[in-house]
Amino acid sequence: MFGCCCQAKEAKENLLKHSGSISKGQALQVENQRFAEQMLSFDKDIPWKDEHVEDGTTLGWFPPEMSPSIMARGQTRINASVEEFVSFVMPKNKETYAKMVSEVYGEIGKATDMVWVSDEISYVWLHLTYGVAWIQDRDIMFGQRHYATADGTHFVIVTPLNKWDRHPVKKELVRAEFELTCGYIIRPVAEHEIDVTFLTSTNLKGWIPLWLSNRISRTNGKVVTQIRKHFEPNKSETLERFERNKVCGS
User: Fold this and answer.
1) Can you say whether the dihedral through the CA atoms of 15, 20, 21, 24 is positive or negative?
2) CA–CA distance, 86 with 184 (Å, rounded to integer)
3) Which of 86, 187, 244, 250 is surrounded by the most beta carbons within 10 Å?
4) 177 and 205 in contact (C-beta within 8 Å)?
5) For 60-108, what is each residue's pLDDT tens digit?
6) Beta bridge partners of 128
7) What residues pair up with 122 in beta bridges, in sequence order?
8) DSSP states of 170-218 as a string?
């Protein structure tokens, strides 16, 4: 009996010793790598129904009747560097983030809040409205982070956030949630050219008509089109805007 206790104590000490040898930074890297692998699998393994749009974007969707989630993918080429893209979708202050949401999501993104909880991770809250009076608005919370792999692929990783004291559940809103690791996969093509894949899998909760679920699934991928349009003006203007964003976020 005492031998078993000693063995258990030794095992616990070894576990604590091993855990202590891994820094927070290393643990975050391991976690980010796992999330990145999940995103690559999400992109590759879902039997997407792809639609090629004239502007060069490919919209992928998975029929809601085949899944309880709104699953969508958007793929396009954007004239921007990785740093410009990440700075745009992950700005350093909530006012800039709110402007980005308004530009990219239009009237759907009714309100937004964002705060950086560490140097690597930010929390986001969105109030979503679908423009139909008899369908209840949603809100959704998530964490996001930027990660790069050794082969040069970058990820803006979006993960579910179940609790955030700043935004308790409101009775007038239905709280939606991400069910898979979502976000952006960014692959550099040239100095100021990247291929971007946007992935989302959202359970809107509550009741929502199938026709609206289908519409959301088939159009959610257009997020990348709106981001591409952001970088389409004169390149010098785009670079100046990027520099201003950096100054605002510093």
Assistant:
1) positive
2) 9
3) 86
4) yes
5) 998 877 776 889 999 999 999 999 999 999 999 999 999 999 999 887 8
6) 109, 138
7) 116, 144
8) -TTSEE-EE-S-EEEEEEEEETTEEEEEEEEEEE--S---HHHHHHHHH
H or E segment at 110? strand 109-116
Least confident stretch, 22-36, 122-136, 225-239: 225-239
d(CA 62, CA 71): 6
CB neighbour class for 24 (10 Å; exposed up to 12, middle 13-18, buried from 19): exposed
Residue 12: other Cβ atoms inside 10 A = 10
Structure tokens belonging to residue 152: 């040069």
Is the Cβ–Cβ distance between 42 and 60 less than 8 Å?
A: no
Question: What is the 8-class DSSP label of residue 167?
Answer: S
Task: Please name which of 171, 184, 15 lies closest in space to residue 104, comparing C-alpha atoms.
Answer: 184
d(CA 114, CA 142): 10
